[in-house]
């Protein structure tokens, strides 16, 4: 017993000391309360949308907004996807989904590619008038889009591109370029200039340095750019309505036609299902790569 008694805290045989539990202070309670309220603010409408989409109209008429459906059904989802009326046609939101994909993929690739090259050039090569060009791009990023609508409609009409797929892709590329350029320029500004100078000494040219040195270092900011562009382009309504034309209307425009139809009974379950389907792509993209998005934003902030 005496030997065991001698093994006290001073002898190192005591239980390992872990981090002390944090006290539940008033400030911490307030933080938790704020987080819970913020989560409910976003999750409660989503819960209502989901359960409403799973109810038949006979149950929705009772007015039990928060009640779980007595007999859940996906009939509203199937109708929203394949047979809901978007004006005079009843092809569902499926057509808008594929139109949105045709618009999204080339717009994201072009806007990010051009923005990355422009940000790289403004960061390292400094062409004549670079500061003026950057100021013009920033001005374009903060001006309201409505200012450009009529001039762009006239220009695209004169060159016979208005209401085509090429037209809407060009519009999204143009309006995504200022933000993408700013994003990449701030990220590249934090890369040590000595790396660029060493590549120049080794005989690297504009494109070889960009493709072999800069792009491999740009993974965090590329992920941020992809998420931003996918979210912005997929959720766009105004440009799709004005520039896409009837044959290329994106999912958001089709959703508006479903929700605001004035013929027959207003089917709230179909409307909710169509809304969730429309928001599904950016939600999936963010949940899959959300942690990379946060890392990229942090890296850009530190490096910029």
């Amino acid at each position: 017993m005496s030997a065991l008694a001698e093994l006290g805290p001073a002898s190192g045989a005591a239980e390992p000391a872990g981090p002390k539990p944090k006290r539940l202070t008033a400030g911490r309670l307030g933080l938790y309360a704020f987080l819970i309220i913020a989560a409910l603010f976003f999750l409660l409408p989503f819960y209502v949308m989901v359960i409403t989409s799973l109810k038949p109209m006979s149950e929705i008429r009772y007015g039990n907004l928060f009640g779980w459906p007595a007999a859940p059904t996906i009939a509203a989802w199937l109708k929203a996807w394949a047979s809901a009326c978007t004006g005079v046609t009843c092809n569902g939101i499926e057509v808008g989904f594929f139109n949105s994909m045709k618009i999204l993929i080339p717009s994201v690739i072009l806007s990010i590619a051009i923005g990355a090259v422009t940000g790289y050039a403004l960061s390292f090569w400094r062409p004549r008038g670079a500061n003026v060009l950057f100021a013009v791009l920033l001005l374009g990023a903060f001006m309201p889009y409505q200012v450009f609508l009529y001039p762009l409609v006239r220009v695209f009409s004169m060159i016979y591109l208005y209401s085509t797929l090429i037209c809407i892709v060009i519009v999204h590329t143009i309006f995504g370029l200022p933000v993408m350029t700013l994003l990449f320029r701030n990220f590249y500004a934090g890369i040590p200039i000595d790396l660029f100078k060493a590549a120049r000494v080794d005989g690297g040219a504009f494109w070889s340095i960009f493709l072999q040195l800069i792009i491999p270092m740009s993974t965090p900011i590329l992920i941020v750019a992809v998420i931003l562009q996918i979210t912005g382009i997929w959720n766009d309504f105004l440009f799709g309505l004005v520039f896409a034309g009837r044959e290329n209307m994106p999912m958001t425009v089709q959703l508006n036609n479903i929700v605001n139809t004035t013929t027959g009974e207003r089917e709230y379950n179909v409307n909710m299902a169509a809304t969730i389907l429309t928001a599904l792509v950016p939600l999936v993209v963010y949940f899959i790569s959300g942690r990379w998005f946060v890392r990229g934003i942090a890296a850009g902030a530190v490096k910029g």
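Confidence is low (pLDDT under 50) at residues 1-12. Residues 95-303 form a domain with the MetI-like fold fold (CATH 1.10.3720.10).
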